[in-house]
């Protein structure tokens, strides 16, 4: 990369936005904390089974939805100062849509009075056979594929509680991914259909970019959500990843995306300051789903989609541990890990929260550095 006055200016601007985001979020963080306490938006043992573990009982009563600090700061600064219709509007839109989904889930878990249940398949089949209303039986037959999807999706999460069910989350995340895929395929043009293959140039995958984008948006959003289980874990790892994306997008010449990544990094610095144990607040689904989606989109836009498992390494490890646990349970009939996601496995094996978080940070940083090296070759 040849350093010109223009490229240096972009880097200076990105660093400036990062600093501004950090300061702005620091100024209004006390307001957000007070708001969450005032309206009792806190962790509740009724929907969070992990609070039953001895070392985690102290987390009961800690505010959730602290991820709003990052989501609101990044969205506001970008809309006012970095609004580029060719690049930044869809990443922000997808982030806000996913964050809204997460926020609804957080609020339902806290304030909904009744558990939300799915009807079992055998109950549906029985109703199809015996229900007196013929039209209702026809309706049950027509919607049977959807009912089967709802039941099988439970494998990917806990049993139905007060919040959104897995199938509802997956559907909304699919919509967010589809919006991003449409934008990349239709609006950004032919160039973004060429996928960078590490060490081997690019390959044109044409319309196949659509399912790829949807998959990575959904997978990354849920992967970050899985990692949001220990004080500082998700925030610190996201700082590492978005810092790397700032460098990479700047080198690749995507100035607006570099500024967006730097803005996110700055806001995450403040969030993690307040999230370090003992946390003043926690990210919640509003932050993890929103930032996971933003991470995926920003990596895809700079044409490094296949490096997401490296740039988001610890998040994908967390997601993989849940999938492995599910496969072990339903195929082998036993647990592979003491508890999933994997950070709980180490916690239950005797690692302190601080030890687990810091080691995960270090491992994540090492793999992200490797991912940067791969991206630049």
Describe this structure in a few short sentences.
This protein is mainly α and 377 residues long.
Measured by DSSP, the beta-strand proportion falls in: under 5%
Can you tell me the number of structural domains? 2
Helix proportion range: 55-70%
Helix/strand/pairing class, anyone? mainly alpha
How would you sum up the global shape? globular
Main pleated sheet: 2 strands, antiparallel
Helix and strand sequence: HHHHHHHEEHHHHHHHH
- Radius of gyration, in angstroms, nearest whole number: 21 Å
Spans where pLDDT lies below 50 across 5 or more residues: none
Number of helices: 15
Number of DSSP E strands: 2
**Order of strands across the main sheet:** 1-2
User: What is the residue-mean pLDDT, rounded to a whole number?
Assistant: 85
Distance between the termini: 12 Å
